[in-house]
Amino acid sequence: MPRTLTLLITLFLLLGPSTLRAAPPCDPPVLGAVTITERTAGFKVDAEYPVLCRAEPTRAVRDYVSATIHEFKKTDPDHDLRRFPHPYELITRYAVWPAPGGRFVSVKLHVMAYTGGAHPNNWPMTWVFDMQDGREITLDRLFPDRKAALARVSGLCREVLSQSLGGMLVPDMLDAGLTPTADNFSRFILTNEGVAFFFGPYQVAPYAAGEQVVTIPYDNLGGLIAPDIAAGAKAD
């Protein structure tokens, strides 16, 4: 037997298949960040978003941030503090979660926009990307049987939020925000522990309750997640 082949077999037996993993599709997953800062008499923009190791995911996040800034500026282009003595403000901040092995990368963007009124508007925006091909993991790709999956997810989120909201629980808001529709559950990421679903202020509870997040362990979604995603998202 050739010496090279013998060495490879020996390494496989010593290290085992769990050690000899395929390299991540690209590494490191986050190469840097882009910061957009603008100041006028009536506006402040302070936006950040990550530069990922594939162009397609970076472009998707960039385009969302750019469109959000554009819409923000259209609110009242001539605002100069004369009619309302406070500047309008837009802020974005991000967090990134690479899955074990590096195939899937989740991005969560927190957006805060203030255009007058008693308080700013806040909302989450999320993406999960397959770094092998740069495509986004949508609900339909995550859950082949979306109807059955969302029924399960809705029930599990209701169990958690009914307890965690305490005095902020408003049954009618919870019912509307957890109706098993794609729009209600489209903001999610993949963590080592499970699928985390984000709910912005007013979706499931009053503004004062803030953003809500429920992480559902993968074991509680057994058979509902696409097999390749379930295999690539879980920690050992």
TrEMBL record:
Limits of the DUF3298 domain: 142-219
Task: Give the protein's recorded name.
Answer: DUF3298 domain-containing protein
Going by the UniProt record, its keywords in alphabetical order are: Signal
The family database entries (Pfam families) matched by this protein are listed as: DUF3298
Under InterPro entries, the record lists: DUF3298, PdaC/RsiV-like_sf
Q: Cross-referenced Gene3D superfamilies, in alphabetical order? A: Fervidobacterium nodosum Rt17-B1 like, Heat-shock cognate protein, ATPase
What is the residue range of the signal peptide feature?
Answer: 1-22
